[in-house]
Every structure is written in structure tokens, then in C-alpha cells.
Design a protein that fits this description.
The chain is mostly beta strands. It is built from no helices and 9 strands. The strands form 2 sheets. It has a 6-stranded antiparallel β-sheet with strand order 3-4-8-7-6-5, with no helix packed on it. About 7% of the residues have low confidence. Keywords: Metal-binding, Zinc.
Length: 128
Amino acid sequence: MGRLFVVYLEGRIYSCKHCKTHLALYDDIISKGFQCRHGKAYLFNKVVNVTVGEKEDRMMITGMHTVADIFCVCCGSIVGWKYETAHEKSQKYKEGRSVLERFKLSGPDGSNYWSQEPHVGSSDADDV
């Protein structure tokens, strides 16, 4: 596989709950109004230490999007998805941005989020 280069972030960070690899800064959150199978999800302007999976079209609450799952570069856990293309004009702000599932993260204070009510299917929400 080769040598793994990991970016370390400073400040209030979200990290992979499995291996504690840094993923995103609190200051890069665009929206906390997204939903996923396990509950809450956050839209980030920038994430690090992830690999991007295959692109696929998914119908979400706000319409059709081309997305790719994103995985922690260290442990391989799926941590969210990246918006590649938004097919609706009003959703173009999501392109190139990533959603991290809160259930898969450790928060800036070290806490984990445990969903009380699982949701069926991937979805997103409008909260910009």
C-alpha cells in the first residue's frame, strides 16, 4: 500500500470514532441540518484524511445528486459522502463538499454521538 501521510489539524476537530484520525475542523461546518441512516450529519466545506469511493447517482430529499462515499484513510470506515454533482440548480452549493455522519465521529470535546432513532436510507436537508 505504501506510506500513509496523515494531516493533523489544530483547534476544535472532528475525528474518526474508531481510530481517532483527524477528519475536519469545527470551523469548516456549513450546516448541521443533514440526516443520514444513523441520525444527524454535518456538511463540511473541507475534510481531510479520507479516500473517495465510486461515484453514483442517489435520489435524496433535495433531488438527484452524484455522490461518492468517503472512507477514513487509516481504518477504512465509511464516514460520510462527498457531493460530486448536484442536478438541481438550487443545490449547486453542495458540489465538492462533504457530509460526515455524526454517528461515525468523535466530537471536538471527545464525545461520541449515539443515535436514538435510526433513519432509513441516505438523505440530506436544506439548512444553509
